[in-house]
User: Which sequence fits this backbone?
């Protein structure tokens, strides 16, 4: 399947990115609907057919298949798949039917409903988005669930973590041109709030990270290194802890380089004992129609073994097959 390149523009930085999943040529929604029904009819389920379709169609095409399926068979395709599949395979398959911002809204709602809150999921979504993306996610969240995202975050989190998540979800970053004097001043402010004092003034970190444009923050980090000789990521590692540290690390890593950020997210999901399947799934499903091919190339440059080899080692069965299908394209 041929890849199609997209130019990613963020604060005057441009580079070409490539997805692994692109719209299928000679697409036939009726034929796919029939194949889904065939795969789920009678005893047992033909997972091979389901994996082939969801890994080789765009989300827009899958939505058309779902509409055609309802017309042809009088049943909801996603609910039918939910009843036939289990575990991580089910999560990946159903995730492919959500649009780009729908899937992010779904992750956020799932992270906050019921008992307990998945703070890592909240951080992964909210702290790795541009202001425009976050505004779209908030609107989609309201449309899908008739709920206010900010109010839900305030209800489900607390303390300094709640403050940075609400600030980032508000999506009100500045868009003005780079100000060298301001970056120089705020590099000093960050030093005074962290390394330069006993304890850490998290509110200063929060204000600068949530308010300044990505390009402005990159300059501030550069001038911080000039001032102190230290990378700001190392400062975050030393000065903060727990989920709050993860939130600021996510913002900084994404601002430094979105492609490397997503490749490291995949690495983190599979390192050490056990695998964070939810993190692995949401990263691959989120990026497969955007930049997963580019992310995979970066991962393979930074880590051994390759992404595909690592996934095969950490997963198994049909779950492994669908992840590999999405990664390969």
Assistant:
């Amino acid at each position: 399947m041929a890849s199609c390149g997209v130019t990613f523009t963020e604060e005057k930085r441009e580079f070409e990115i490539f997805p692994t999943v692109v719209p299928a040529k000679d697409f036939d929604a009726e034929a796919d609907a029939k194949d889904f029904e065939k795969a789920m009819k009678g005893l047992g389920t033909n997972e091979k057919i389901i994996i082939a379709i969801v890994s080789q169609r765009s989300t827009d095409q899958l939505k058309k298949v779902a509409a055609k399926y309802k017309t042809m068979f009088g049943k909801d395709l996603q609910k039918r798949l939910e009843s036939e599949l289990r575990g991580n395979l089910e999560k990946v398959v159903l995730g492919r039917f959500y649009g780009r911002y729908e899937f992010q809204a779904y992750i956020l709602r799932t992270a906050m409903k019921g008992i307990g809150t998945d703070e890592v999921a909240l951080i992964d979504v909210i702290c790795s988005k541009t202001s425009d993306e976050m505004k779209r996610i908030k609107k989609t969240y309201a449309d899908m669930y008739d709920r206010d995202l900010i109010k839900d975050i305030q209800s489900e989190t607390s303390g300094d973590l709640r403050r940075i998540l609400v600030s980032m979800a508000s999506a009100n970053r500045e868009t003005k041109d780079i100000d060298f004097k301001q970056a120089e001043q705020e590099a000093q402010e960050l030093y005074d709030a962290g390394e330069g004092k006993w304890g850490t003034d998290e509110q200063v970190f929060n204000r600068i990270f949530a308010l300044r444009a990505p390009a402005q923050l990159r300059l501030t980090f550069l001038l911080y290194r000039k001032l102190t000789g230290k990378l700001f990521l190392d400062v975050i590692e030393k000065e903060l802890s727990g989920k709050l540290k993860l939130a600021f690390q996510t913002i900084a890593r994404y601002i430094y380089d979105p492609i490397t950020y997503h490749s490291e997210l995949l690495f983190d999901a599979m390192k050490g004992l056990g695998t964070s399947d939810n993190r692995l799934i949401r990263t691959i499903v989120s990026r497969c129609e955007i930049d997963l091919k580019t992310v995979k190339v970066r991962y393979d440059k930074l880590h051994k073994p390759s992404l595909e080899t690592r996934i095969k080692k950490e997963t198994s069965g049909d779950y492994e097959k669908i992840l590999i299908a999405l990664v390969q394209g």
